[in-house]
Input
Amino acid sequence: MKHEEIREKISEFHDPELPERERLEIADHLKSCPDCRKRLERWENVRAEFAKAPAPEPSEFFVRGVMNRIARLEEVPPEPEPWFLPFLRWLVPATGYAFAVFLIFIAILHQEPVVDTETLLLAHVPENAQWSFSRETPKISNLFVIKEQS
Amino acid sequence: MENYKAVSNEDYGIILEVLGGRQNEYAEIVRKYEGRVRGYCLTLLSDPAQAEDAAQEIFIKAYQRLDQYRAESAFSTWLYRITANHCLDLLRKRSRHKTESWDALLEKEGEKAETLLGAAPDDEDKLEQKDMIQKLLACLPEKSRTILVLREIHGLSYQELAETLECSLDAVKARLKRARHELQKNADTFPARESSKESEAHHEA
Output
């Protein structure tokens, strides 16, 4: 292998999967190539740090956390609500509104005015009566007089 | 790595018990693998709180899919597959929000990195070097990071890597080679401290 090829394979030097023949060839090249030695040294530093990657301490707290979550997953789900419950949720207020509308309708239908103005002012006026308009408010007693005359 | 088949058989017995209704037996599985899963998440995510949450999620996912495990490969390989996929998802989500390019890191911490990677670390440098290694890893694409951590830290064989990452042996070799090359290229960005002159002299010769 040439220098460039070996340089590219430096990171595989410690990999047990590298064929032994290639490892020997690289090792032989390293004896006479400071550049590749330096590259290997850098790679070994990186690799050494990988090897020192801290394995977290065993944690019973973690195990309990996982098992508690699983226990919650396994809990029996609440019983499904009766089939009519969703209907009741809208049926009750809808019935209330309908009853209110019904009451309003009845009230309008049976509405009676407190004073029947038409009857009071027109029905008892003689047909030949002359209309006169005044800015003054008529007295109630005069109106009764007109009624008696008719 | 532990004996492949022995681990598989032993775990499978526990899994059958769990599937048979003895959920509490799953604690044995969690106890056995929590160190590796939490360690993997921590190295890959570089955030202790997020790593703990991710590890919990992974064990919950594994529990929910336990009936899909078919003892064709070791349980650890199956669990690593869930772990790798979960962490990959988190890294992708994270990379949508924040990415620090290698060039940016080089500009910001070039001198420190040169010192740390140039020669064997002494005790004082260890903490900083650990941090720098995580940053070196963080600059790699998610898939490269995944395969490097599985191979270099967790020591998975090429066969286990192929099963974990659900790809062929050739693909594993190619991906590993590319990942190492990327990492080495980043590490080589810094000039060598002692032997640069020596190297130049060699090439001139």
